[in-house]
Amino acid sequence: MTKEELVQMNEEGGAQQAPPAEAATDETSVDERPNRTAFSKRFSNRHSDIDFEDKEARYAAMNDDADLLGQYEQSGKALSKVFDKHKWLAALAMDMEKNPDDNPFDAMARLGIDVKTLLDDPEGGKKLAEILAKHNEDVAEQNEATEKVTANMRKSLERLMKLYPDDAQDMWSQIYEIHDKVESGDISDDIWKMLHNANNYDSDITSARDEAAMQARNEKIQNKVRSSSTEGIPPSLSSSGAGNKPIKKKDEPKSGFFEGLTY
């Protein structure tokens, strides 16, 4: 046996003993993917109503999570800038996080912030007074606006109940639906059509009345024309088969001895 034949025999024997590469890959893909398994569990805990094996649904949920994460990152960066500029505020926030039931002034005292000194300072006290006054003014305006809206809604509901008591509940719900859509900016075609029909209601009614009156006048004129055109024509000669009553012909005066005496 030559050396080349021996090498070929060894290669063939090794190929028979070695498992196919594809089979090994399949076994690995099923049994040795711990990251996928861990992620699928976390995904199921967060999105219990979504099938992890549904790729489109899974990608949609992951996109939503990415958007939410982006918002958190932006908020975190903005808050970090504030904390970097005011170190004491960051310490105060951390203390309040550990003691959420405490008064903020207690936390400030624990951090060594002398609130009394700040209030006794003329400039600082004046600035705080202005800020508090502005805050109280804003709160008062919000409360007044809320009370006004509540009173107006109560009056509107009373008027609606007087106008359409049977349909009041449905119409009130529709008003809320329209309000929500207008507030969100998503105004549907149905709302635009409803407004268009309402704006043109009076003109449409007027046009319909004018058209009906014109049609009535035309029919009246046509009836007069038919009456005058068939006057004196026997029914048998009328195109409609029914002419007007023939005009009675006056008797001609008779000639003779009594001519001129009786006529």
UniProtKB/TrEMBL annotation:
Annotated Low complexity bias: 11-23
Q: Where is this region: Disordered?
A: 1-38, 216-263
Q: What protein name is recorded for this chain?
A: Uncharacterized protein
Comp. bias intervals (Polar residues)? 224-242
